[in-house]
Every structure is written in structure tokens, then in C-alpha cells.
Amino acid sequence: MSEAAHKTDHDKTGYVRPDLTGAPAVVQIRKLVTHYGTRKILHGIDLDVREGEIMVIMGGSGSGKSTLLNTLLGLLRPTSGAVEILGQELHSITDVERTKLRQKMGVAFQGGALFSSLNVLENIMLPLREHTKLDLNTMRIMARLKMQVVNLSGFENLMPAELSGGMIKRAAFARAIVMDPRILFCDEPSAGLDPVVSSTIDDLILTLRDAMGMSIVVVTHELESAFKIADRICVLDQGKILLVGTVDEVRASTNERIQNLLNRRTENKDLDPEEYLRSLTAAND
Ligand SMILES: Nc1ncnc2c1ncn2[C@@H]1O[C@H](COP(=O)(O)OP(=O)(O)OP(=O)(O)O)[C@@H](O)[C@H]1O
Ligand SMILES: [Mg+2]
């Protein structure tokens, strides 16, 4: 890959992107097909995420982003194909092996998914309580260290209801990284945030990769955010991959559907034919 091909918006701020060509894959997706009932959602996905890479999964509403993410997390069983995470095939290993593997995978869910009855510190400590036998003090120290990383120090005792949208996302990130995962998955990390807060979340994602060497998979609608953080972008459309490439490669694509997505022309106009038929025949209950 040439130097020029690797330049992105973020490079203008002096950020130097690591060269990941040749890095081993931490996630390998092969011929992945997923259905909901009889309806095919993912139509044979092939994708590698490299070690230390920030891979952004982009696509219009209903393109299958969350379905793909849930399959990578082992929450949804594919109909066929393989998902290899850190060398283990997620869906053919035993439950015990999968639980162990999941400890190397952090997840920051879209809405934060914090427990409303626990304060911030207790929420962040949860994975340690669940998966380790560490004493309470050690768990507190580890959780506080991660709170520093996400810039939440001093807010340990607040309840989720007392947090702003940006703070909820930060707490969700702290919980996702408290076990020092090798791979971090984030669903719409900046959705619903104002541009300034959204930009600080992007910076946090870059910091996690640079300072902690994590490989990160981000699902997002936000073009600006995708262009800022992505090493590569995977563009999904109706359950198929249109393109996997650098920010510049995506921008330069002449594919009409990609250009529509970049210019926000897809939504509403672009109904999936099957979905359209179903909407006409659906009962009004
Ligand atoms: N639990 C489910 N049961 C049946 N169909 C589903 C289910 N979840 C999603 N779908 C359908 O699968 C398709 C892909 O959905 P998915 O949630 O993966 O899209 P997405 O790209 O994440 O969209 P969004 O950007 O709106 O979150 C959609 O047509 C959706 O209606
Ligand atoms: Mg989704």
C-alpha cells in the first residue's frame, strides 16, 4: 500500500497510522451466511480483521451490520460458514472454550447496557467479578485504572441515570476493556452524541488501539467518525460486502451504491425488494 493511499482526514492532525500490511488476522470470517427464520440476512461474508487494526463496518440501515456483529460475538449462530477468532472457530468450540475466548473480546454495546442499579465503578467491575477470583480491592484498582483511560476518574459513585450520553459511552468502554481484551467490538459508539463529544469518543478509540494495541471492530453510521478512525472500512449492502478498503479507496470508489451511501442518498429510497413485498402483504396487527 502506498503512503498516499493510507492518508485520511486524521492524518491532517498529525496522527501517524501504523502500517498493518502483513499483520496476522485476529478475526477471519469465511463464507458466512446467516438467516433469521427463512430470511437470508448475510449472503456469504468474507472478511479479515488484522491485529492492531481498526476495522469499521459501514452500511445503510438494515444492511446487516448488527447481525454481523452479533455473529462475531457468538450471540447469533450462522447457517453456514466460519468465524475464527484468535485462531478458534467460534461456533464449533465447546461452551467452556467459547466463554474463555469471550474473555479476550470486549464489547461496548450501542446503548451502553449499564446496569441501572449499580454505580459506575460497580458496572465497570462486573466482568472482573464474573470471570476472575480477584479480591475486591484489586478489582477496584483495575476498574479505576480503566476509568482513567476513558477520562471518567472521579465519577465512580454516580449512577447510570446521572450520566450524560458521552459518559455512558465512556463507562461502557471502560467495562469493555477492564479485562484487557485482545479485540474490542463497538456498536455505534458515537450515535446520538453531539459532534464534539463524538469526536472525543473517536480519539478514545484511537488511543485504545495505539496505547493498548487492541484490534477494534466498529459498527457505525457516522461517516465522519468512520473516516477519522478507520484503517479499513467494510461496506455492507443487503447482506453482502461491496468493498473492503482504506478511507481513500472507499471515497474513490465508483460503485454507485457506495457513492449513494457516502452522499446519504440510500436511506428510505432503497428498500430491499423482499422487505417491500412483506410490507405490502403484512397484516395490520
Ligand atoms: N431478530 C430479528 N428477526 C428477524 N429479522 C431481523 C432481526 N434482526 C434484524 N432483522 C432483519 O435483518 C436485516 C438486517 O438487520 P440488522 O439489524 O443487522 O441491520 P443493521 O445494518 O444493523 O441496521 P441499523 O443500521 O438500522 O441498525 C433487517 O432487514 C432486519 O429487519
Ligand atoms: Mg444495527
Q: What do these coordinates show?
A:
It is a single chain. The protein is an alpha/beta fold. The protein is 36% helix and 22% strand. The chain is built from 10 helices and 10 strands. The chain has helices at residues 65-72, 95-102, 120-131, 136-149, 165-177, 195-212, 223-229, 247-252, 256-262, 273-281, and strands at residues 25-36, 39-50, 54-59, 80-85, 88-89, 105-108, 183-187, 215-219, 232-237, 240-245. The strands form 2 sheets. It has a 6-stranded mixed sheet with strand order 6-7-8-3-9-10, with helices on both faces. It has a 4-stranded antiparallel sheet with strand order 2-1-4-5, covered by helices on one side. Helix 3 packs across helix 4 (136-149), helix 3 (120-131) runs parallel beside helix 5 and helix 4 crosses helix 5. The radius of gyration is 19 Å and the shape is globular.
Short description:
The protein is of the alpha/beta class and about 280 residues long. It is about 35% helix and about 20% strand.
> Are any ligands bound, and if so which?
adenosine-5'-triphosphate, magnesium ion
Number of strand segments: 10
Anisotropy-based shape? globular
Strands of the widest sheet, in order across it, are 6-7-8-3-9-10
Work out the strand percent.
15-25%
- Could you give the order of the helices and strands? EEEHEEHEHHHEHEHEEHHH
> Which blocks of ≥5 consecutive residues have pLDDT under 50?
1-9
Return the average pLDDT rounded to an integer.
86
**Cα-atom Rg, whole angstroms?**
19 Å
- The end-to-end span amounts to 54 Å
Quaternary organisation of the protein chains = single chain
Largest β-sheet summary: 6 strands, mixed
Assign a percent range to the helix content: 25-40%
Given helix and strand content, the structural type is alpha/beta
| Discrete helix count | 10
